[in-house]
Structures are given as structure tokens and as C-alpha cells.
């Protein structure tokens, strides 16, 4: 497709949303006893997916991708917010209305091994949704050029939907019948007659083929559609390879002709050689049936290849969302940048700097206040007066604060928390050891320069660790140490927040438009007063 055409089709796509998500939250364990916090798996997201578009959803493990995908197809109940599907909020549907809508939105799971019932044949697996939904419903549309009132007798249900299973056209030479392509039924299986009056017409319909037979025929067609063979109908999942099993999962998802499909890591469990084939199949199916996809993935190169736009998720929030190529080439959000910088650069002469994120994301039970990424952000805004503190000392402050922040884990000792956060195997005996670990200048770490720690007093060890830390920082770190030694951990944390905190840890950011194509980024750095990023990370925002 030429560049121009691509742009044009994408512009058309974004003006016609099929799925429109507003303020969506999905929390788990909301009825927690003893005041325990819910898991805020999805914590207020807004985005839309255009008809025919593939939106990628990426982010570290546990950031809420699967929960978001499952909430969109109503396999999880939204705690708050709405999911508009063709303009209708599906979070409020229940009973038969919900069942009817489920046909339109399906999901393909990551692991075809565990998502397919091993005791059912492949045919039964694909047929199951058809049975559950009593497919086909034999909806009948009547096209009468004289536009008289129409009634139906015999088989079928009258509809004015242009996607009716059977269309009867009333004509001077008698009625003619057309069946929809997805119904594997010959027109000759429908016996139709009409009784016409001046202002009304009655259509009598008799269908001579059983639903069971049609379902079997539909399954055979679906097998072929996904690149399997008719004779696979009676085989069991264990007789197939991983790629074939995923094709079965895809056929099952397509059985009811959905408009929207959540693909939850559809190729992650497959051999690399098979991945491309399944991805090609998904692309072909999208084109053939006009499908809209939410494509959840870990593998960013796959996302870059297959998605029109990408949403980057962190701790239940969408940090950045926009057109794929633009976002990959020039990420605007510090988290997107960090995530992308972890991909090995194909061009060895490329100069962009890698950002290694420390530790793992915070728990969604206890997310940070302010920006969700604030505890790990490489370009977090500093408060006035500390702009010149060197990176190493500032990183020490952030680490110390993070160790103390995790109130949820208060039962876990400071030593253990430090160990988990820093990913170090060596233990920490006390706060002095922690301060030593996080603040000791790198130039002083070789053992030859220092007497062994056990030969030094605590004062000497702290002196060595904080020797390069500027006095305006050091005063506060010493106060923190005193508070921790007095068992006043939460006060120590409070002190760090008050002295070294900034807007990033205090207020949630806004979503800022960061490109002409409408890409959005959730970061305080886009506010005019904070636009000047620190020189060390200047390249993050100076990339065009
Ligand atoms: N049924 C559940 N009950 C309680 N917590 C849950 C449940 N399902 C998921 N979670 C939690 O919600 C958070 C988001 O999980 P989710 O599976 O949506 O993330 P993810 O980004 O899809 O992760 P992965 O990439 O590993 O699949 C995690 O902290 C997870 O432990």
C-alpha cells in the first residue's frame, strides 16, 4: 500500500470508532476485608478503536493488558466507566441483551493448549458457540418494492437488518430468495410463497435443512477459512501442533461472525517459525471480514508489524497512544521511551541512549500517587533547588524513597524490601547498609580504596557513603536515618516526599496531544512549565 493510501485509510478509520472506552476501571478484590486495597488492574483509561483498525496494547507483565481486553468483551465486569460499542454502552447489558451482543465481540487466548477443551473434538470446539447461540437464527428480511406492511409465517424471524440470514424479494414473477454468504445453505432449501393484498404481504417460509447440519457445514467452512482441513473435524486438540491449535481457537472466535476480536498474545506461545503464518492469517481474516482487533502483545516487533496504532500501558493507565510508526520512531512518553529502548537497536551506529528501568512496577494494590510511572521515571521532575544534584545521588534518593514507600509491604523488613527492589542477592543488615548501597559513589566501591565495612563505625560508613552528596540533600538523609533508627519509618518516608517530591509524585498528569496526528501522552513533562527536561535525558524529548 502506498504511503498516501495508508494515511488516507487510517484517517478514515479514526473517524469511525467501533469501540469507544471512557474512564474505564476494572478492580479486583473490591470486597476486601480488613480495609485491604483492591487490585487496580485497569485504573481509568480512555481510547477508541476505529472500525477495521488494529490497536496494539503493550506494557510490562501485570500492567493490566489482559484485564482491559477481557473487560472490553465483558468477560470481566467494569468497576467504573463505559465501553461504547457502536455507540451503545455494553457494560450495562445483561441477560439476553448481553448474550446477543457477545456474538459481536470475541477473544482469542494466548495459550491454545489450555484454552481448548481437550476432551472435545476440534469440530465440537468450534461448533460450541454456534450451539450456545442457537445459530443460525434464520432472520428474514423482506424486500417489497411496493413497501407494503409485511408479516412472516412458518420458519424464521422477521428483521429489518440488512445482514439478514435470508432475504426474500417480492416480485411480479413471485418471490425470490437469497441467503447470506456465511450461511452454508443453498437457496433451494428455502421454500417460500407470498399472499399479497393491497396494503400488506404475508411471506410463508419453510426451511428444509436442519440447524445441526448447517452448523456442521459452517464448522467445515471455518476449518478451511483458518487453513485447516475438513477431515480435522473429528480430531482432538492434542493431535495438533501449537500453530494448528491456535488456528482452531481463531476459527472458534470467528464462528459467530464477530465485528471485534481481542487477540490476547495470540502468537506468544508459538514457535517463531509459526508465528508469522498465524499473523498473516489474522491479517487476511481482518481484510476479508472487516474485523477490528485489539492486539495484546509483549513482542514489540510483532506489534510494529501488525498494528495501525499502539497503546502503551503501565500500572492500569495508558501512558501513550498513537500511530505505530510515529510512536516507535519518536516516543514522547518517558515510559514508552524506556520500553522501546530495551529493544536491541538494529543500527549499531544509532545514538539513542538505553534506559534501564530499575526493579519492577509497583503493586497495582498500592500504586504511587501522582503519575503511575513516577517511582521509576528517568526524567522525573525535580523540585526547585535540587536541579544540580548529580544523577547518582538523585537515584539514591529515589531508591530510598521507593524502599520506604511500599506501605503494603510494611510487614516485610527494610532489608528484604531493599533487596527485592534492587534485585540484589547480597543482604542489607540495617539502614546504614541500605544508605551505603544506594549512595556510595561508584568511584569508591572498589574494596581496595576502603577499609572493610566491619572495621568501620556506622558514622564512618555513612560519611564515606554520603561524601559526594551535597549538603542540602545530606541533611535530610541524615534526618531520615535517625527516624528509621527510631522506628518511625512512615515519618521518614513523609520527610523524603516533602523534601524531594515534585508534581510527578503529587498530581496525576493530564493527557497531552503530542503530535499532529493526535498522539496522546500522559506525562507532566508536556506542560509548558516543565518542558525543559534535564540535560542528561534531553534526548528523550529531542528526537525529531
Ligand atoms: N482474577 C484476578 N484477581 C485478582 N487480581 C488479578 C486477577 N487477574 C489479574 N489480576 C491482577 O491484575 C493485574 C493486571 O493483570 P493482567 O493479567 O491484566 O496484566 P497483563 O498486563 O495482562 O499481564 P501479562 O502480560 O503477564 O499477561 C496484576 O497485578 C494481576 O495480578
Distance between the termini: 25 Å
Strand order of the largest sheet: 6-14-15-3-16-17-19-18
Our Rg estimate from Cα atoms comes to: 30 Å
The dominant shape is: elongated
Poorly predicted runs: 1-13, 424-428
**Number of continuous helical runs:** 18
Helical residue percent band: 25-40%
Biggest sheet architecture: 8 strands, mixed
Query: Which molecules are bound in this entry?
Result: adenosine-5'-triphosphate
DSSP strand content: 15-25%
- Quantity of strands, as a count: 19
List keywords for this structure.
544 residues; 19% strand; single chain; ATP hydrolysis activity; four-stranded antiparallel β-sheet; Oligopep_ABC_C; nucleotide-binding; eight-stranded mixed β-sheet; 19 strands; binds adenosine-5'-triphosphate; 33% helix; alpha/beta; ABC_transporter-like_ATP-bd; disordered N terminus; 18 helices
Give the SSE map.
Blueprint: H1 3-14, E1 17-28, E2 39-50, E3 54-58, H2 65-72, E4 80-85, E5 88-89, H3 95-102, E6 105-108, H4 112-115, H5 122-132, E7 139-143, E8 149-154, E9 157-158, E10 166-169, E11 176-179, E12 190-196, E13 200-207, H6 211-225, H7 242-254, E14 260-264, H8 272-289, E15 292-296, H9 300-306, E16 309-314, E17 317-323, H10 324-329, H11 334-341, H12 391-405, H13 414-422, H14 431-439, H15 458-465, H16 471-485, H17 489-500, H18 503-506, E18 511-513, E19 520-522
Parallel strand pairs: 3-15, 3-16, 6-14, 7-9, 7-10, 8-13, 14-15
Antiparallel strand pairs: 1-2, 1-4, 4-5, 10-11, 12-13, 16-17, 17-19, 18-19
Structural description of this entry:
The chain is of the alpha/beta class. Helix content is 33%, strand content 19%. It contains 18 helices and 19 strands. The protein has helices at residues 3-14, 65-72, 95-102, 112-115, 122-132, 211-225, 242-254, 272-289, 300-306, 324-329, 334-341, 391-405, 414-422, 431-439, 458-465, 471-485, 489-500, 503-506, and strands at 17-28, 39-50, 54-58, 80-85, 88-89, 105-108, 139-143, 149-154, 157-158, 166-169, 176-179, 190-196, 200-207, 260-264, 292-296, 309-314, 317-323, 511-513, 520-522. The strands form four sheets. The chain has an eight-stranded mixed beta sheet, sandwiched between helices. Helix 6 packs across helix 7. The longest helix has 18 residues, at 272-289. The two termini are 25 Å apart. Mean pLDDT is 85; it is low at 1-13 and 424-428. Adenosine-5'-triphosphate is lined by residues 28-29, 39, 41, 59, 61-67, 364. Keywords: ATP-binding, Nucleotide-binding, Transport. Residues 361-370 have a biased composition (Pro residues). Residues 19-340 form the ABC transporter domain.
Amino acid at each position: 500500500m502506498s504511503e498516501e493510501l495508508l494515511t488516507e485509510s487510517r484517517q478514515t478509520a479514526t473517524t469511525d470508532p467501533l469501540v469507544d472506552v471512557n474512564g474505564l476501571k476494572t478492580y479486583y478484590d473490591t470486597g476486601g476485608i480488613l480495609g485491604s486495597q483492591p487490585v487496580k488492574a485497569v485504573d481509568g483509561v480512555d481510547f477508541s478503536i476505529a472500525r477495521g483498525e488494529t490497536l496494539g496494547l503493550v506494557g510490562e507483565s501485570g500492567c493490566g493488558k489482559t484485564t482491559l481486553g477481557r473487560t472490553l468483551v465483558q468477560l470481566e465486569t467494569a468497576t467504573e466507566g463505559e465501553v461504547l460499542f457502536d455507540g451503545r454502552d455494553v457494560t450495562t447489558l445483561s441477560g439476553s441483551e448481553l448474550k446477543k451482543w457477545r456474538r459481536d465481540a470475541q477473544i482469542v487466548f494466548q495459550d491454545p493448549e489450555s484454552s481448548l477443551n481437550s476432551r472435545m473434538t476440534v469440530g465440537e470446539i468450534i461448533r460450541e458457540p454456534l450451539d450456545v447461540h442457537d445459530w443460525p437464527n434464520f432472520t428474514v428480511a423482506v424486500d417489497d418494492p411496493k413497501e407494503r406492511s409485511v408479516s412472516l409465517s412458518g420458519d424464521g424471524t422477521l428483521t429489518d437488518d440488512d445482514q439478514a440470514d435470508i432475504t426474500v424479494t417480492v416480485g411480479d414473477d413471485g418471490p425470490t430468495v437469497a441467503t447470506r454468504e456465511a450461511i452454508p445453505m443453498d437457496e433451494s432449501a428455502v421454500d417460500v410463497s407470498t399472499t399479497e393484498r393491497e396494503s400488506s404481504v404475508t411471506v410463508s417460509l419453510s426451511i428444509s435443512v436442519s440447524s445441526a447440519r448447517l452448523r456442521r457445514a459452517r464448522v467445515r467452512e471455518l476449518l478451511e477459512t483458518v487453513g485447516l482441513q475438513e477431515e480435522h473435524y473429528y480430531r482432538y486438540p492434542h493431535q495438533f501442533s501449537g500453530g494448528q491449535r491456535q488456528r482452531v481457537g481463531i476459527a472458534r472466535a470467528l464462528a459467530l461472525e464477530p465485528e471485534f476480536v481481542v487477540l490476547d498474545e495470540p502468537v506468544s506461545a508459538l514457535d517463531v517459525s509459526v508465528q508469522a503464518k498465524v499473523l498473516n492469517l489474522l491479517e487476511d481474516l481482518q481484510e476479508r471480514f472487516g474485523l477490528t482487533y485489539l492486539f495484546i502483545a509483549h513482542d514489540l516487533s510483532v506489534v510494529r508489524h501488525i498494528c495501525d496504532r499502539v497503546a502503551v500501558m503501565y500500572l492500569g493507565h495508558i501512558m501513550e497512544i498513537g500511530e505505530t510508526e510515529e510512536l516507535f520512531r519518536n516516543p514522547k512518553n518517558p515510559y514508552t521511551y524506556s520500553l522501546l529502548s530495551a529493544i536491541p537497536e538494529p543500527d549499531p551506529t544509532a545514538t539513542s541512549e538505553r534506559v534501564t528501568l530499575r526493579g519492577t512496577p509497583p503493586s497495582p494494590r498500592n500504586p504511587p500517587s501522582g503519575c503511575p510511572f513516577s517511582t521509576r521515571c528517568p526524567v522525573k521532575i525535580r523540585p526547585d533547588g535540587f536541579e544540580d544534584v548529580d544523577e547518582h545521588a538523585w537515584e539514591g534518593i529515589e531508591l530510598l524513597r521507593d524502599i520506604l514507600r511500599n506501605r503494603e509491604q510494611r510487614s516485610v523488613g527494610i532489608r528484604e524490601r531493599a533487596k527485592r527492589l534492587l534485585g540484589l542477592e547480597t543482604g542489607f543488615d540495617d539502614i546504614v547498609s541500605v544508605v551505603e548501597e544506594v549512595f556510595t559513589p561508584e568511584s569508591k566501591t572498589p574494596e581496595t580504596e576502603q577499609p572493610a565495612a566491619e572495621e568501620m563505625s556506622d558514622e564512618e560508613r555513612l560519611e564515606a557513603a554520603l561524601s559526594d552528596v551535597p549538603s542540602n540533600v545530606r541533611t535530610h538523609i541524615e534526618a531520615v536515618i535517625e527516624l528509621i533508627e527510631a522506628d518511625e519509618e512512615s515519618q521518614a518516608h513523609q520527610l523524603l516526599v516533602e523534601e524531594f517530591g515534585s508534581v510527578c509524585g503529587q498530581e496525576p498528569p493530564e493527557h497531552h496531544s503530542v503530535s499532529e496526528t493526535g498522539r496522546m501522552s500522559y506525562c507532566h513533562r508536556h506542560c509548558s512549565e516543565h518542558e525543559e527536561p534535564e540535560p542528561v535525558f534531553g534526548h528523550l524529548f529531542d528526537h525529531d
